[in-house]
Structures
1.
Amino acid sequence: MIRAIALSKTYGRGEAATKALREVDLEIGRGEMVSIMGPSGCGKTTLLQLLAGIDRMSGGEVWFGDRPLHKLDDKELSRVRLERMGFIFQAYHLVPVLTAAENVALPLIARGLTRQEADRRAVEALKQVGLETKARRYPYELSGGQNQRVAIARAVAGEPDVIWADEPTGALDSDTSEQVIGLLRMLNRHLNTTIVIVTHDPRVAEQTDRTIAMHNGRILDHGDRAARNGPADPAAGLAREVSSR
Ligand SMILES: Nc1ncnc2c1ncn2[C@@H]1O[C@H](COP(=O)(O)OP(=O)(O)OP(=O)(O)O)[C@@H](O)[C@H]1O
């Protein structure tokens, strides 16, 4: 579903040039939950941003299904991001003057949904992450873990093919971090959404199907695909699982 071929990125020029990615080949299958680990500065965020079409590569190709992201212009790329991808960041990136529900609805309205339909979907997504009672709260009225769940609701509300998460638990304590990753794991199983997580935390990586290990702009190890712990049980209902946490 996502394929990188000889993907390279150099920041700056001449003496100041930094080779952040060096001819990386990579494949991520539909429905996989993958982590990317490696020392600080090895190129994890750069890789994520190129795969997601946020930044431009210096060389190589990125295929998103049958779409060549390396050939799309900025407008086409932002359309793909808006319609097919969800994003979660360490610092949540919520709009402070909007409520949880408004934050979740915002990208849906940008996609052209009516306000009413966007609100309906936002409430549904907040329910999926166990936050239906907090829909009218502002980010400053919520805990870090709750804000990250709002960000997850925003990422899943548009039913994306893939969610990109850059250090999603970096600002959270270990219990909250576990809950957030558990939630992503459930969404991955329940909705079959592909999830790619950059993390420093081995406990986060343990929850994923495989871990890609990077070093100095290269992939050292693509990771073995771990056997999943049994199929998801849709009948159990995701909302019930989450709200019982
Ligand atoms: N905008 C930029 N301009 C110049 N150099 C950059 C830029 N962004 C990243 N780099 C450099 O590219 C290399 C890879 O950076 P990247 O952020 O991808 O690493 P990372 O593995 O995500 O690091 P961390 O774990 O610390 O977040 C680093 O040497 C970094 O200093």
2.
Amino acid sequence: MNQSEETAKISVKDLSLFYGDKQALYSVSLDIEEKKVTALIGPSGCGKSTFLRTLNRMNDLIDGVKITGDIVVDNEDIYKSNDVIKLRTKVGMVFQKPNLFPMSIYDNVAYGPRAQGIKNKKELNKIVEESLRGAAIWDEVKDRLKSSALGLSGGQQQRVCIARAIAMKPDIILMDEPTSALDPISTLKVEELIAQLKKEYTIVIVTHNMQQAARVSDKTAFFLSGEIIEYDVTNNVFSNPKDQRTEDYVTGRFG
Ligand SMILES: Nc1ncnc2c1ncn2[C@@H]1O[C@H](COP(=O)(O)OP(=O)(O)OP(=O)(O)O)[C@@H](O)[C@H]1O
């Protein structure tokens, strides 16, 4: 057994996905390592988001989707188990645009734990504080927890979204272009946060920003037309790509 197999948190084998008749992923295989940041890059429409969504079965919500192949998370084939709620608790997700509910900051973060049946006020207070601290936003919001979350800046809202994901105590956090709607300073804050989060969580991030992939990720997968062209240590993908198509993309010659 080599090292990457030993530490694989998610193991994807021969995964294909069809939207009706249209194939979007072609026999994708890759191992995602635990407590590392894995970046998914590639031109628009190459299947990055589709792939990301297969990891917590979000594509199940779309009519006509057919998936073949295996995704094993912690030794369990997620498409053979029917416990999608448990899966989505374990594999949290942060979207491109902050999508907080129109309620207070506190209630947003407490929403998931409450839905899981946690009612005890002290326990909820603890989860909310720990999650907001974990998302590096506690100091900015601790005096206004009961104010509307929608009154925060976009960058603050995105960190509260991350806190909301953390509150569910996931192992894995999927991020779909989490900074594309943010200004440069908020982007930097979220990137710093990602560097902190990987001490505890396995992170998979879709990004269009090459510098961001190079800055935050340990490994990078380059997708093209629904296939993985290259998957390697990030530094190799950017400095010493093996495939000409990867080189063309990371040097900005196409896409
Ligand atoms: N719900 C859907 N129904 C049908 N086709 C879809 C659906 N979602 C995505 N697709 C198609 O699947 C392919 C992959 O799309 P996907 O959104 O995964 O790409 P992407 O690499 O994330 O693109 P972008 O960078 O623009 O977000 C595209 O051809 C897209 O049109």
